[in-house]
Amino acid sequence: MENRVIRIALIGDYDPQVTAHQAIPVALGLAAEHSGRKVQGEWLGTDSIHADTALDEYDGFWCVPASPYRSMDGALRAIRFAREQRRPFLGTCGGFQHAVLEYARNVLGWADAEHGETTPDAERVVIAPLTCSLVEAVDGIRLREGSLIQRAYETSEIREGYRCRYGVNPAFEQALLGDDLQAVGHDSEQELRAVELKGHPFFVATLFQPERAALEGTLPPLVRALVEACAERRS
């Protein structure tokens, strides 16, 4: 069983010009080397994800940066599968935004929840422009003690980089966060930067892009934790 390939679906539309997309295969390679397991990341274009897509074939899911996606519905379908089927899930940048949007629509029942990047004039814009854009910004983040992300980093104070213009709309933050969707990371201005799903084996989403560390030869803790969660689910 240990020699079976761990298959991780990379939910997003691959673009070789996107730095995060360059970093993701490197990060998975570092995680494979660290764990001694075979790990395969498979790009799954959002416009290729439909009701009959064999999502069950994947051990884990990573919803990656660079939205808007070609198909928001496709991305949300894959996130919902990971959430409902308790498959390990990591969302970074755009993946964070769409994980929150999927939760709003399918758990809270907010059918009219929208993303401000694609539907800026909607009444319930759950993901809205940030008051201060985080394009190529680096900032400190405080992690909640005992959270999955804190255990992955093995510390409660980290510094990570962003390339992002959208985040959770403060007008809906309190209603979004509750028993299931939990805030686990805030920046120096106390803005929400990471969430987890309570009761799920591994469902973590960050507005920052931890994968970029791989381009400097550093194994991103969350990628290591994702691979470990996939291996634990199989065992």
Topology of this structure?
Elements: E1 6-11, H1 19-35, E2 39-44, E3 60-63, H2 72-84, E4 89-92, H3 94-106, E5 113-115, E6 124-143, H4 148-153, E7 157-168, H5 170-176, E8 181-187, E9 192-197, E10 203-206, H6 221-234
Parallel strand pairs: 1-2, 1-3, 3-4, 4-10, 5-6
Antiparallel strand pairs: 6-7, 6-8, 8-9, 9-10
Strand content: 25-35%
CATH fold naming: Rossmann fold
Please identify which CATH superfamily we are dealing with: Class I glutamine amidotransferase (GATase) domain
For the largest beta-sheet, the strand count, sense and barrel status come to: 10 strands, mixed
Helix percentage: 25-40%
Tell me the CATH architecture: 3-Layer(aba) Sandwich
Identify the quaternary structure here.
Answer: single chain
Counting DSSP E segments of at least 2 residues, the number of strands comes to: 10
- Poorly predicted runs: none
Distance separating the two termini: 8 Å
* Tally of contiguous helical segments: 6
In short:
The protein has 235 residues and is an alpha/beta fold.
Q: Could you explain how this protein is built, in words?
A:
With 235 residues, the chain is an alpha/beta fold. The model has no long low-confidence stretch (mean pLDDT 95). The protein has 6 helices and 10 strands. A hairpin with a 5-residue loop joins strand 9 and strand 10. The protein has a single domain, classed as Rossmann fold. Strands 1, 2, 3, 4, 5, 6, 7, 8, 9 and 10 form a 10-stranded mixed beta sheet that branches.
